[in-house]
Design goal:
Length: 86
C-alpha cells in the first residue's frame, strides 16, 4: 500500500487494485480513517476531531490528484506523491 502523502503524523495511503468507491486510508497513531474522494466523506474509522478536520481539508485541496492516483492504483501503477497539508 503506497503512502502518497504525509503531514502532521498522518499517513495517506492507497491500496493497489482496491474496491470501489474511490477512497484512501488515513492513518494517525492507532487510528485509521477510510475516506471517499468524491463525494468527500469519512466512511469508516475513528480519529481525533483535529485529525479528521485536517484530512478532510487536505482531501478538498487535492481531490483531482487523488482521483488520478486512484486510477493509477486500480491499474497497479505507482501513484504520484501529493503535497502535504501545510
Amino acid at each position: 500500500m503506497p503512502t502518497i502523502s504525509m503531514f502532521y503524523g498522518i499517513l495517506i495511503k492507497m491500496f493497489f487494485d482496491d474496491h470501489a468507491p474511490p477512497h484512501f486510508h488515513a492513518e494517525y497513531a492507532e487510528y485509521e480513517l477510510v475516506v471517499t474522494i468524491s463525494p468527500i466523506k469519512i466512511i469508516r474509522g475513528e480519529a481525533p476531531k483535529r485529525v479528521k478536520s485536517m484530512v478532510l481539508e487536505w482531501t478538498a485541496l487535492h481531490q483531482e490528484e487523488l482521483l488520478v492516483d486512484w486510477d493509477l492504483c486500480k491499474n497497479e501503477c505507482t501513484p504520484a506523491k501529493i503535497e502535504p497539508l501545510e
